[in-house]
Amino acid sequence: MSIFKALTTGFKLTWKYKRIVVLLYMLTFVLSACIAFPLKNLIEVTVGKSLMIKDLVKGVDYQFFNDFNNTYGLGLIPVFDQSITVLMLFFLLFVFFSGGVISVFINDHPESYKKFFWRKGAHFFFRFCRLAFYFSIIHLSLLGMFFLVFYLSINGEMQNEGTISFALKVISPFYYLAAVLIFMWQDYSKVFLVKSDKTWIFQSMFPALKFIKSNFLKVYGLYLLNMLFWFVLIYLNFRITLLIKFTSGSAILLAFLISQVFVLSRLSLKLINLGSVVDLYSQK
Amino acid sequence: MSIFDIMKLITTLLFVFICFCLSATAQDKRFKTALSKRTANYDISLVLNTELKEVDAKQQLTFKNPSDDTIWSMPFHMYYNAFKNNKTTFFTEASGIMSRKSQEDIIEGTWSWIKIYEIVDEAGNDLIDSLIYISPDDGNIDDQTVLYLKLKNPVLPYQTYKIDMKWKSRIPKSGIRTGYNRNYYFMVQWFPKLGVYEPAGSRFANKGQWNCHQYHANTEYFGEFGVYNVEMIVPEDYIVAASGFLVKEEERGSQKSYTYLAEDVIDFAWTANPDFIEVVEEWEGIEIKLLVMPEHECNKDRFFKAAKHTLSFFEDYIEKYPYPTLTIVSPPYYGLFSGAMEYPTLFTAPTLCIMPPNIRTTETLTMHELTHQYFMQMLSTNEQEEAWMDEGFTAFFEAKMMDIYYPEGVFFFDYLNINLGSQEFRRGRFFAADNIKIGPMSDFGWKFRHGGHREIVYGKAAIMLKTLEGLVGELCMQDIIQTYFQRWKFNHPCRQDFIDVVNEVVPRYHNKFGNDMNWFLDQAIYGTEECDYSVKSVSNSKLTEKLGFFKNTDNPVLPSEKSAEILYESKAVLYRNGEFIVPQDVKIVFDNGDVIIEFWDGKSRSHDFTYKGNRKIVSVEIDPYMKIPLDKNLINNSYTLKPDATGIWRIFTAFMTWIQGIMVTMSTLV
Ligand SMILES: [Zn+2]
Fold this sequence. Notes:
The complex is a heterodimer.
Chain A: H1 2-16, H2 18-47, H3 62-72, H4 76-107, H5 113-154, H6 162-196, H7 202-214, H8 216-243, H9 249-282
Helix pairs in contact in A: 1-2, 1-8, 1-9, 2-4, 2-9, 4-5, 4-6, 4-9, 5-6, 6-7, 6-8, 8-9
Chain B: H1 3-29, E1 40-49, E2 54-64, E3 71-77, H2 89-93, H3 103-108, E4 113-121, E5 131-134, E6 146-155, E7 160-170, E8 179-181, E9 184-187, E10 193-194, E11 196-198, E12 209-211, E13 226-235, E14 239-242, E15 245-252, E16 255-265, E17 270-273, E18 277-283, E19 286-292, H4 300-317, E20 325-330, E21 342-343, E22 346-348, H5 361-371, H6 388-405, E23 411-413, E24 418-420, H7 422-431, H8 453-472, H9 474-488, H10 495-509, H11 518-526, E25 533-542, E26 568-576, E27 584-590, E28 595-600, E29 606-613, E30 617-622, E31 638-640, H12 646-667
Parallel strand pairs in B: 1-13, 19-20, 20-22
Antiparallel strand pairs in B: 1-2, 2-7, 3-6, 3-10, 4-7, 5-6, 8-9, 9-17, 11-12, 13-16, 14-17, 15-16, 18-19, 21-22, 23-24, 25-26, 26-29, 27-28, 27-30, 30-31
Helix pairs in contact in B: 4-5, 5-6, 6-8, 7-8, 8-9, 9-10
Bound molecules: zinc ion.
Zinc ion is lined by residues 342, 368, 372, 391, 394 of chain B.
């Protein structure tokens, strides 16, 4: 049962290096707070004294948001611009950390992992950046290809708009399965890159593809399982949030804490996935 | 008598009975007494050629002169000519319309038109040479949407006059509001329709005159009340629905003829499509017919439910819908050009089965278009000159009904507790417009050359009426609408007629607004200014005792030693930020629990309420009962010294969580 073994190893590795998960989580926390505070200040300064503020506890108050946007909407532009900058920064930092995480998982020396983590992150940073760039192109091409199929399937004199939803229902599962394949390829390429330390990205991408081909059922099964966990987490997060009745500050705090648990869980899952990929790779 | 004879007799009796029933039903549906003056009456027989996309028709117009004028001319709306070339008034006004016309049609020169090729008066005079196209609105010589007929014999005062004509038209493909696409036909503005004769004193007429405007991009139609008897001959597999009710259905070889009778209506619309499914329900003797595509049948109950709610609402609010039938046409997706449009006893309302039930456009459109049966079908205001008088009233009632019957909102979603009410949505869309001051509601539709027509005639008008209701109260508002309706139903009121009713009814309920409501209505109807009141500040400062030298004191007054209770001067300062003036209730809450409702006439630019005593003001709220949705910014209407930041924390945490969610999702791409 190498899939389950890999999964368990993933869990173990993530638990062993839980400080990395905490670091990543803190990163999301601090960066998102950096964007959310200016928004909070904007609201406080412009309309903080209004009695309408207390209606926001329940959730979306269309009247409030509409009037706010009409009157103070310009203030939102820097907040959103800043959000984009911070998200870009996070992306780059995550690229940096990915190299570190995979190196730590492959070498698995708990005593000296910290130095290793930072050094390898820096060592592989530019190559991981390139890898992310190539795979973004591959992802976009895949999306474009499926969009083309979708477009061709509904093109011409469509009988009715039901065709659109039918085509979407038929095509999207295939897209999902294909996209998972690319994500998987990306993860194995990273492992190959760290392991072989080659200059050219393709020198890791092709061996990774070969590896996937020869162990297809195992690696794809594992990946689908991981993706399933991912969706289960998101769904649970959504359902649990719906259960909370927002009437007071404590309900808001509770909801926030729950959402933080889910952020932490999703980040852990990302690392579990990488850990299990490393394990399957080592089983070869 | 053999068993066969008995069977034969029964069959015959049954047949006679069915025929009787059918004719009796058709007979029953006719009004025993006319509801309107029936000024312009039409007998039309037409053949729809689905190969050539043409209509060939014979038409008799019976016109009753409603005045003591002698009339020498008749103008006709020839609205299919709006699609005759690319320089018509319609095409020049409607930006983006050209893109709807296919390149193939442009290259092949396929344009639409309508022309009269035979016309005689009742004395047998051939009038074909007495026809000329005119452009009363803009003088555009390329526009042929108004045809002017110079009569050889005049129409004498209060006399009836008949005109017979034969005409032919080419149906536009996916035109705006009317036309065909594939085998769906939606036929409105499709026949030579007489203008409205306005005797001196009616609407804005100083002397007897015709009201007949060109076809504009922003506006549609205005018509005279009458009876329409229309025979439509279509290919046999086509399903037809029309204004009024079916009186005859006949097979004619490969064709089928449907004859519809519509009484006391201002227009006649019809539709044909072989793919329609017909679903019929009944509500208090009214036959509600839904023509829907098979792929949209899933939503049929949504239409019926909304339609019945609307009928029931107006039965209580004004009076019962008087017509025997109501037809809802839900077009296929390729017939969306016919949009959500209203015609006498028939309207269109698109729907989609892929639309989730928490988006209530099907209901909103049904309620809106059905409301038009009251506002501009029965109360026949001039849509071209005063669109707000139908769209504004309709939007006002649509929002009111939606909020009553669908309290979850027009869009609702459990996550973040989204419940978007119809009234707030209407208001929000208006205030989010590019320029809410672009023109007064009283402008003709085509005067809005730089946009904003919809925002003003739907949004501003609906919010103005809601504000009027807020000011005068719901009971008084209902009285206004009822009086207005009873006085003007099956007639052509204009804004002044409505204003007169308001000014007559309101003083019966209130004496606080003066002799009339013109101070409000003038600003709202003829003005373009915006309304915004705000609470600028709230302060509570300790009252200090007299210290120092005063008149008649030789020694300075020193601080007293007794520990008197602390007194405050509490002050709330209010601003009028906009030019629109409206009186305001102001709610003032004190720290000891006292609540005072003050009245401010709202006229000065700033105003304060000041109190002295041992209590301090905690919060101030302008318009606490939300009577004035016309106020542009409701957030600044209140001010509290004890702000509760929990709501802001809710936004903060939600926003933070979303950003984190995006980050985690982005991490999959690395
Ligand atoms: Zn409307």
